[in-house]
Amino acid sequence: MATDERADEPERYDYDLVVIGSGPGGQKAAIAAAKLGHRVAVVERRHMMGGVSVNSGTIPSKTLREAVMYLTGMAQRDMYGASYRVKSDITVEDLFARTQHVIGREIEVVRAQLLRNHVEIHNGTGSFVDPHTIEVLDDDGRRTRFAARFVVIATGSKPHRPDTVQFDERTVVDSDGVLALDRVPNSMVVVGAGIIGIEYASMFAALGTRVTIIDKRPTMLEMCDPEVVESLKFHLRDLSVSFRLGEEVAGVDSGAHGTVTRLVSGKKIAADTVMYSAGRQGQTHALQLEAAGLSADSRGRIKVDSDYRTEHPHIFAVGDVIGFPALAATSMDQGRLAAYRAFDEPARELASVQPIGIYTIPEISYCGRTEEELTRDAVPYEVGIARYRELARGQIVGDSYGMLKLLVHTETRELLGVHIFGTSATDLVHIGQAIMACGGTIDYLVDTVLNYPTLSEAYKVAALDATNKIRAVARFSEI
Length: 479
Description:
By secondary structure, the protein is α/β, with parallel strands linked by helices. It has helices spanning 24-35, 51-55, 58-72, 77-80, 92-116, 195-206, 226-238, 328-342, 371-376, 392-397, 425-437, 442-447, 457-478, and strands spanning 15-20, 40-44, 120-123, 125-130, 133-137, 143-153, 157-159, 172-174, 187-191, 210-215, 242-245, 249-255, 258-263, 268-271, 273-276, 280-282, 315-317, 356-358, 364-368, 381-387, 403-409, 415-421. It is globular and about 70 Å long. Its EC number is 1.6.1.1.
């Protein structure tokens, strides 16, 4: 990769690195560069410290989920009955009190971490004047310019709003607007069966809202293991969720009495609220990318190479603004890697074992390859399964539906994939991730001792299941 001729003259710049955006990717890029001893600045709008992740995305939605789980008593219903609730009449004030508290604390944590690492914070909207010059427009209309040796674009994304839909912020909302509802709706239509749509659908279903999920695709959460998806669908149906997959929305009519969603097939669905989850749009409109010789696609996404460099080698982009996987966890690592590569610091990326966490109720998480991928590539594998209901800890926490699936190479015994559905799935997946990253085999899980009673014990149960199946095939071959 060629280097920018000016990037070798650090004395010409006010900063070695300027990061536009303070979300997970931007924050980690700034701190990584500061730890290397460079002059670093972050540009962020005053009311958005921590980025979308802290203010309207990851942190609020996951905190809301925690409030829902606690107030509805969802995790304890298997033990105390379907009618068990901590609070009978749950209001939005109950739900969002916890959310606002956590957001406030997280904003302070982000700000403190940046300042502790001597990263300068410029409050305002950043844009390019030229490939090396950034202008910041603050809330009072003042403009400040400074030169940057390297730039990391980490401006995040916002919900995509189709032009055909009239959002009124009351009955027709997006995934940001759902956090500002004035009451818990009795019924809701969720358009979009992707990660965000299914997460919110499961939360409101747990609250007692009658939810209908619509998506023109024939399946939901296409990236996940089909067996795990079917388990989630069964659980959501148990919460009275209806599915209209393979159906396309023709339009939404809203009024004083709620909404009616019209489908292309002719069906009409009445609901108090419609939440659109039609993907995300990169927040690049204010960057003046053309001044830097860059461009974005129709969804506001910037194209980068494997080092997160744009067409200009000194300008990097990370996080939601570059598209999939657009997760807070992956964005953090992209920010770190971008900073290291800008300053020629050695870094390794374990992209093949990056975990995916989906905070539905119950959780889904996976790492590594799927059965479909292994079958397509003609990789011989065996499946080992452990069900929470067979674990003592599963009985203690009241989770009778959870499961853990291991995919194991039948010849090398290498762990190829981990797929989990149930309580603490997003935490448990890291055990399998660590083994795969180290090139470990199923034998480690068979031989090791795991605390009892824990959900982690599922790994040993699943490992023994897979090992027994492999042994049975080998024994048959010897006959």
